[in-house]
């Protein structure tokens, strides 16, 4: 028994002798790791739409980490990071016909054009195990979650309504008298908005392979390739900016609608996993429920940084 206690004590002493704490700071850039369809982009003339694939995890990041090595090989690391996401384009264009009751049911052409972008601003936390293959090469894997942040969408929507057929004057005007010719602009509605989305707390995977270069007994430079696998499920969203201006082409007064004029049901949204069919929000004082969706934040990236260890022994 004394022999085993002696061996256990010797192991603790040996491990403690090589144990060390470290802190590090890094910055890097990410690209989307999966080809999720994020939206479409229209050319300047609005005649060609191109699919855009990516992830809200694309962009620039900064990380602060702290770690502890039990020996020269095995360690554990916790980190906090910030993502400044790249823009994801979400343009759209629709053209359709509608009836105008005020003009005797005349047909009008509607051109609905939206130019939009969305981007992520997120804070994350991670815990990972670190393994030193040798004094230069290391690997790590662990779990990551989002602890704050948002996805922001900014959009400008322009709806142009144009008369698609002649509107004829009633009697006693001569038959065939055109009161309003086809092609006359009836109205233009321009809406500018900003919408913030917040998600449920996700759990994802983080893994990296890196190379470290010793500067002094306490300082190392490092570069690493990192994979982040995480998706975020929508939880709620709201308009933070909203202005809609309706300009008549027939001389009616221009009207403007602002965010404060919208009821809660038109500017706040709650994402759920199940909804009755049909669903209509009849309470304008409460957020409208919408079926939830999952948005990608997965990415591949490269990080560069510096590590400071609190001992003279080599460490990451």
If you had to describe this structure to a student in words, what would you say it looks like?
The protein has 316 residues and is mainly beta. The chain is built from two helices and 20 strands. It has helices at residues 2-18, 264-267; strands at 20-32, 36-42, 49-54, 59-69, 74-85, 88-89, 92-100, 106-132, 137-163, 167-168, 178-180, 185-199, 204-214, 219-229, 231-248, 255-258, 268-272, 288-291, 294-296, 299-309. An eight-stranded antiparallel barrel has the order 1-4-5-8-9-13-14-20. Strands 2-3 form a two-stranded antiparallel sheet. A two-stranded antiparallel sheet has the order 10-11. The longest helix has 17 residues, at 2-18. The chain is elongated.
SSE string, helices as H and strands as E: HEEEEEEEEEEEEEEEEHEEEE
| Cα separation of the termini | 38 Å
State the secondary-structure class.
mainly beta
- The gross shape turns out to be elongated
Mean pLDDT: 88
Largest sheet: 8 strands, antiparallel, barrel
Rg from alpha-carbon coordinates: 30 Å
Number of discrete helical segments: 2
The strand count comes to: 20
Count structural domains.
1
Quaternary organisation of the protein chains: single chain
Percentage of residues in helical conformation: under 10%
Low-confidence stretches: 4-17
Strand order of the largest sheet: 1-4-5-8-9-13-14-20
Taken as a percent bin, the fraction of beta residues is over 45%
């Amino acid at each position: 028994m004394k022999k085993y206690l002696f061996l256990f004590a010797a192991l603790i002493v040996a491990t403690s002798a090589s144990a060390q704490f470290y802190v590090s700071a890094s910055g890097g850039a990410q690209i989307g790791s999966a080809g999720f369809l994020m939206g479409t982009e229209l050319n300047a003339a609005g005649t060609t739409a191109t699919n855009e694939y990516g992830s809200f995890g694309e962009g620039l990041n900064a990380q602060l980490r702290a770690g502890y090595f039990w020996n020269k090989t095995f360690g554990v690391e916790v980190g906090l990071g910030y993502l400044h996401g790249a823009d994801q384009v979400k343009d759209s264009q629709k053209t359709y016909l509608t009836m105008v009751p005020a003009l005797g049911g005349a047909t009008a052409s509607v051109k609905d054009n939206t130019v939009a972008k969305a981007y992520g601003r997120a804070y994350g936390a991670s815990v990972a195990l670190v393994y030193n293959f040798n004094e230069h090469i290391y690997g790590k894997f662990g779990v990551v979650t989002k602890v704050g942040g948002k996805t922001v969408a900014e959009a400008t929507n322009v709806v142009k309504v144009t008369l698609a057929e002649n509107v004829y004057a009633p009697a006693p005007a001569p038959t065939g008298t055109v009161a309003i010719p086809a092609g006359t602009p009836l109205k233009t509605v321009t809406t500018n908005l900003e919408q913030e989305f917040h998600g449920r707390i996700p759990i994802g995977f983080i893994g990296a392979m890196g190379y470290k270069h010793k500067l002094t007994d306490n300082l190392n430079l490092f570069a690493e390739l990192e994979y982040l696998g995480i998706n975020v499920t929508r939880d709620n969203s709201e308009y933070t900016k909203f202005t809609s201006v309706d300009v008549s082409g027939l001389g009616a007064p221009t009207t403007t609608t602002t965010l404060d004029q919208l009821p809660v049901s038109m500017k706040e949204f709650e994402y759920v996993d199940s909804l009755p069919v049909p669903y209509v929000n009849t309470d304008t004082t409460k957020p409208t429920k919408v079926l939830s969706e999952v948005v990608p934040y997965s990415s591949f990236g490269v990080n560069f940084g510096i590590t400071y260890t609190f001992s003279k022994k080599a460490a990451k």
